[in-house]
Amino acid sequence: MTSKKKRQRGSRTHGGGTHKNRRGAGHRGGRGNAGSRKHEMHNHGPWDKHGFKRPEDVQDEVAEVDVRELDEDAALLAADGVADEEGDGYAIDARDVVEDGHEVDVVKVLGAGQVRNELHLTADAFSDGAEEKVADAGGSVELTEAGQARAEETDKDTPDEQDDS
User: Fold this and answer.
1) How far is the C-alpha of 145 from the C-alpha of 148, rounded, in Å?
2) Coil, helix or strand for 113?
3) In angstroms, how far is CA 32 from the centroid of its own chain?
């Protein structure tokens, strides 16, 4: 038996019909992913929905503020009566600073930037970097009642690590 390649020798179109066929990308339905949602959808995986989205009633609305912003605006906040001056530092409630801070579920202080002033901050949550920077500058951080309850909840949800030794 001869090979197909050998049999096709001398044939003008190698079994492709008239010489006008097999001419461009239109013969194969387009190039790349063309037609993947229409005439070639059986060659592609599912496109739309994937994953899981938590219901809105269990999601917390989180407002964030950088510790740099609180540090830079501390004197202005004290002048406006939003923050209190305590000796060399400032006592700031993050809920008062953030826009709509009293309407959101959680106000979190993030650790972006530098801290030059002694800050005594109150918020629902702090990043590790924010806690460290405020402590290095001689300040302190304090969780609100809602923040403490939230922290206790997350501690209950995470399983305790046990030593196998």
Assistant:
1) 5
2) coil
3) 31
pLDDT in tens, 116-150: 999 999 999 999 999 999 999 999 999 999 888 88
Distance of CA 109 to CAs 68, 142, 151, 160, Å? 10, 11, 15, 26
- The encoded tokens of residue 142 equal 């304090």
Report the C-alpha gap between 17 and 76 in whole angstroms. Answer: 82
Q: Which residue has the tokens 């901050």?
A: 121
Burial category of 129 from C-beta neighbours within 10 Å (exposed 0-12, middle 13-18, buried 19 and up): middle
Contact 122/94 with Cβ under 8 angstroms? yes
pLDDT (0 to 100) of residue 163: 57
Which residue bears the tokens 């806690």?
Answer: 131
Q: Which tokens is 61 given?
A: 């609305």
Find where tokens 């060659």 sit.
43
Among candidate residues 152, 96, 150, the one with its CA nearest the CA of residue 121: 96
